[in-house]
Amino acid sequence: xxxxxxxxxxxxxxxxxxxxxxxxxxxxxxxxxxxxxxxxxxxxxxxxxxxxxxxxxxxxxxxxxxxxxxxxxxxxxxxxxxxxxxxxxxxxxxxxxxxxxxxxxxxxxxxxxxxxxxxxxxxxxxxxxxxxxxxxxxxxxxxxxxxxxxxxxxxxxxxxxxxxxxxxxxxxxxxxxxxxxxxxxxxxxxxxxxxxxxxxxxxxxxxxxxxxxx
Length: 214
Fold this sequence. Notes:
Blueprint: H1 16-42, H2 62-86, H3 91-108, H4 131-155, H5 160-181, H6 187-213
Helix pairs in contact: 1-2, 1-6, 2-3, 3-4, 4-5, 5-6
């Protein structure tokens, strides 16, 4: 059942702290997506149709993507705190926090080079997976699961239209991640995951903006 909030049930989002926290949710997506795309289009050997953003943490310029993960993770955790102040219930913001922490861990634990990136790396998957590569995948999977669940839980506290938007976002993101996690190297799967990530960030941005205006 979808719960539509009345003004009496919402937290006071007009105060500066709540608005500032929700503004982080608006910024997180553009920071992550634009930084990733600019790197993907300019770094030698990187192919958007073959490589996920995590591989950008490797090479001499890897610090850019590592910083991108850390900054986006902090912005997401802040956005979760703002949503917690604006909506009833703790599960939704808590699950979104899991996603933010997953991004932070993705910045700390670097993915292994593979499939020709950085330049000089053999084609195909790595011959062996390092401990930090394993933790990167595990933390990413837990964070993605948190984001999918957060879409459904947070959406349940919004109007019917926004609730369906949240659910569709969660389903699309799950399908995108499932395709990549299956090990498929199809360009359609890789590009689909890039698209799913963009859709999820857009949902967080529009939801945060909506709550800030209200």
